[in-house]
Design a protein that fits this description.
The chain has about 325 residues and is mainly β. The chain has one helix and 22 strands. This is F-box associated beta-propeller type 3 domain-containing protein.
Length: about 325
């Protein structure tokens, strides 16, 4: 694991962390970075399991958590400002013979400070657990996972954004901006972020990235803000694997975050980049840990990038 600090000196921007900190007490599961909150990182096994752990890479303190169900997949870590407590949200996919009322997913909340579990109301959808939630207005936001479905019913565009209110502890879903998608599994490529205090929706399509902003949160009114064309810089940053067609190579873009009107994205095996949406310039982030990672067989990517803030917060739960 590598920590990249743009505010540090050039020769100290990259800090490498040992793998021992990320060890899971259930080999051979390898850890998967899936969330960050106020200096705390959350990991879970690559394959479904009831285990997960929270750590602070700065203090190297770590705690392991076992969900009350198996598999119990952590899908959100957040700080509750009223209780001054960190909480974890878990989702469990019921087996078919346990589906009494036709609701496939049940949810559990864990208090790091109080060390107690709470069963929440069931919900018909589950979020994409590979992407941490975007927290805004006391609400966690995700894109609904289009692959975890019930009776082959793919969640419609009108229910493509999933939300959890940390005060009421209730779920709801809302539509994404734009028109109905011709292929709903396009939802696996879209993502949402916070941009200047507002919710932003990114839709990568080939070498294009469309960015919409939620201008009115209460009325759910979206406005198209940017249309980013990344194709012009394809030849400047060559692709490691050459036997794929150029059109396919341009689709391997994973948007990581939006910071100061810049898209932070991972471009397949090309590397990690920033795109300034005003100046329309691309800058590659170089350094140890940012080197090009060749594609593994069956497109198994091994690099996950999450925004992180250095703090001395303890994973025991209280700020």
């Amino acid at each position: 694991m590598f920590l990249f600090d743009e505010g540090a000196k050039v020769n100290k921007m990259i800090k490498k962390m040992g793998a021992k900190l990320m060890h899971l007490e259930a080999p051979p599961y390898k850890p998967l970075l899936c969330g960050s909150c106020n200096g705390l990182l959350v990991f879970r096994p690559w394959f479904p399991s009831s285990l997960s752990f929270i750590c602070n890479p700065l203090t190297r303190e770590k705690i392991t958590i076992q969900a009350p169900v198996n598999p119990g997949i952590v899908c959100g870590l957040f700080f509750h400002p009223c209780t001054k407590d960190y909480r974890l949200l878990f989702v469990h996919h019921r087996l078919l013979f346990h589906l009494m009322e036709g609701v496939p997913f049940e949810y559990f909340l864990y208090s790091l400070g109080g060390k107690f579990w709470k069963k929440l109301n069931d919900f018909p959808y589950r979020p994409n657990a590979l992407t941490p939630p975007t927290i805004l207005n006391g609400v966690l936001h995700w894109i609904v996972n289009p692959y975890w479905v019930y009776e082959d019913v793919i969640p419609p565009c009108s229910n493509s954004i999933m939300m959890f209110n940390m005060d009421t502890e209730e779920f709801r879903s809302m539509p994404h901006p734009g028109s109905e998608c011709p292929i709903r599994k396009e939802h696996k490529r879209v993502c949402i972020f916070e941009m200047k205090g507002k919710l932003a929706f990114c839709h990568p399509y080939s070498s294009l990235v469309y960015v919409s902003v939620l201008e009115d949160y209460e009325k759910w009114i979206w406005v198209n803000r940017y249309s980013v064309n990344l194709y012009l810089d394809v030849e400047r940053y060559p692709f490691v694997i050459t036997h794929f067609s150029p059109s396919y190579r341009n689709t391997l873009i994973t948007i990581v975050d939006i910071q100061n009107d810049e898209l932070l994205f991972d471009w397949g095996s090309r590397g990690v980049f920033r795109y300034n949406m005003h100046q329309k310039t691309v800058k590659q982030i170089n350094g140890v840990g940012m080197k090009k990672t060749p594609l593994l067989p069956f497109c198994d990517f091994s690099r996950f990038i999450i925004p992180y803030t250095k703090t001395f917060v303890s994973p025991s739960g209280f700020k």
